Every structure is written in structure tokens, then in C-alpha cells.
């Protein structure tokens, strides 16, 4: 989409924003890191202007290849050019689509556990993020309760929002207890921090989570995502350059704290429907933003984090399928390494485990498309075509038996039967099929259990946090 010159123009404009306009923050810790490293800090306005040399140095020190680990090594992931992984939604949502009523309801800690178990079972979901939150626990320790539920129910890598220093410290302690200590966590990080800025150009004390994770040497995922015409300019390019500036400022913060901290680059172009001012999770411009992101990420040599598999639809219907498929495919074709938000409905008002299962099938199709067709002498099959000749068939040939399953995607959820066969099997729509799949997973699948000692330690960390919060309230 962009020429090399245009990529450089976007980069230069982002540097200008950081050096001339700066970022605003109420966090003394964030101000302190930048001030100690030569940034221009205005104590009256809390504006931090970041010299271009600091950004350049940060780009040099950030790893170009990042490895993320699962509790089970079979789920380890390498983030590099050409590798794509899908995961559930982003920050914890307050509601989930109830499987019995088909209506959204407040989500619970049990829902978080169930969703993690479903994600653990789905073959095309490479990592776990939230599809809903635990809103039946104290709000101050919600994220820790969620992590307890997730760590207990998945062997895959976990990317989670852990806002603020207090939550981040406890989250790191929990992850360390699972792998056997902070040193082991640094070697094999099973948890990554997901952090967001407040657009335009604002960090809050919640972004101190990045400092905690950087100090521990554990990966940081970051996204600046201003909305076109609202929290960003009314152009795709202008909004992206703002998002890029916010993301580069977070990258610089992480590298100043600890050079070499794994950083996953995720600026986005948020789009709001101007009739409602609602963030659109199915907008084509949002998908276009991933093309810009992939080009800038390639320019920087950084692994990427983006969106796909989400919808503005309020239910699991044709709109949901179309928007989920388009955004997932565009992100993957753009080369985004980590694609999240699968299973989000209603513009991220609530999640759906049924939609997540459908997105797993979509992801399988996407993987087949990006794998492509390989032209070799064997695959051209000229000798076979010559042998079969006109009016022959290839069905009974050994070449067909050897290659058909490798070449043709076979759906596990979507129906390709004849109409009579479909009718005979119950004439079920995809929503019903997905619902049955979720129920089957929850009935039959469990992650490899944590030891009782680790489970107890996780519970104790969460309880201690609950007690500390209760005491602080008086």
C-alpha cells in the first residue's frame, strides 16, 4: 500500500510528534525513566518530549525475533516474518453471550475458566487472551482472579491486561509460581503484558505495567489505537502516524528500563461509525490499517500484534461471519504475527465462545490460504496428466491419495454435505453446530493440571491481594 518513501515519511512524522509535541503522563515513574535518560520533561504540564535518538536506540535494542512459551512446549511460538498465530479477544469484557439463552449477560470467573479451556482445545488458537472478564470478584483484583482461572485451564501462552504496577507485580509472581521462579519465567515467559495508551498521546499510571514487565525481562505487547476523526485525525495516514508515535514511545520506555525487553508492536487505526461514535470492529479501514502496520513493522524489524475475527454484529450471524473472516484474512495476508479479538461481538461489548469456535474454523481456512501453492516438478504432475490423458480421472491414482489431504482444507465445523444429508443430520445452522462444539469441549477437554502446590500458591496470591485491597478500604 505504501512506497518506501511513504513508510519513511510516516516514521519521520512519528519522530516529529514525539520530539516536538511529546506525550502526557501523570505517572511519576514513567516521567522518571524518561527524565533520567535525557528526555525533555516539563514539570508544569507533565509533557515528555522524546528525542529521536532515544527512539532510534530503542529500535536497535529491541529483539527482532521473539519467542513466546506455553506451559507445554508444544505450544511455544516464534514471532518472525511469515509466522501467524490467532488468539481470543483482548481486554476482559464485562459480558458474554449466554449459551442457553443466546443473550448477553454479566460474565464470571467461571466463564473465564471455561473460555480458557475452550481456547486450549481449539487447534488454530495459538495463545490465550480474554473473551470475557470475571465481574463477580472485587474489581481491584479482577485481573488476578482471571489469571488464576486462565493458568489453571490452559497450557498455551497467555497474553493478558495487567494494568498498573500492583497488578503487574502480582501477575508476574503468579506466572513465576507456575514455571518455578522468576529466573525460569525470564527464560520461558508463559505470560506477556498487554498495555494500551490513552489516545491521543497519553500514558496513565496503569501503563506502569510495562515498567514491571520490562524490569523482569518479560514480553510487552503494546497498542496505540486512536480512532479516525475522534481521538485521531480524520485520515487513515494521520491516525496511523499518531498510533505509531504512541507505540514507539512505549517501545522506548521498555528499552530504557531494560534494553532487550521483548516488545511486540501493535499500533492500530481505530474506526468509529460517525452516526453512533461506536468503535467498529468490522470496518474495512481497520483491516487496511494492518497493511500499514505490517509495512512499518518490516521497516523496524519488529514482531507485530493486530486484530481479526471480530464483529459489530450483536449475534452469531452472517454479518459476524463476514466481518470476522475479512478482518482475519486481511491481518494474516498483511503478515501480522499475533492476531487477537477472535470471538468478539457487538463491537467488543461482549464475547461469544460459539463465535470463537467459528473463528477457529476461519483461522484454519486462513492458514491454508497463506500457505499457498508450491510449484515443484512433483506438484505440476505432468507425467500423471500425460498418463491419465483426456476423459480420464485422477481419483484412483496413488498421487491423488498421497496429496489430496495435504492440498485440500477439510472443515471440522462448516458443512459441505448435500442438502438431503444436511437435513438428515438435523438441518443445523452454524450457530447450533458451534454451540454443540463448545459443550463438547467443556465436557471432554481439560488442560494438564497444575500441581496442588502451584494451585494453592496461585490462590494464596489472589487471596492476599483481596485482603490487601479490603484493608486499604478500611
Poorly predicted residue ranges: none
Number of domains: 2
If strands are numbered along the chain, what order do they take across the biggest sheet? 14-13-11-10-9-6-18-17
The CATH architecture of the largest domain can be named as Alpha-Beta Barrel
Described by the principal axes of the CA atoms, the overall outline is: globular
Number of helices: 18
* CATH top level assignment of the largest domain: Alpha Beta
Which keywords apply here?
alpha/beta; 2 domains; eight-stranded parallel sheet; four-stranded mixed sheet; 18 helices; 20 strands
Write the layout of secondary structure elements.
Blueprint (H helix, E strand, L loop, with lengths): L3 H18 L1 E3 L2 H9 L3 E3 L4 E3 L2 H10 L4 E3 L8 E3 L5 E4 L6 E3 L6 E3 L2 H13 L3 E4 L13 H12 L3 E5 L2 H16 L2 H6 L3 E6 L5 E2 L5 H8 L3 E4 L12 H22 L5 E3 L6 E2 L4 E2 L4 H17 L4 E3 L10 H17 L3 E5 L1 E2 L4 E2 L1 H19 L5 H4 L1 H7 L9 H10 L11 H6 L5 H15 L7 H21 L2
Parallel strand pairs: 1-12, 6-9, 6-18, 9-10, 10-11, 11-13, 13-14, 17-18
Antiparallel strand pairs: 1-3, 2-3, 4-5, 7-8, 15-16, 19-20
Helix pairs in contact: 1-9, 1-10, 3-9, 4-5, 5-6, 5-18, 6-8, 6-18, 8-9, 10-11, 11-12, 12-17
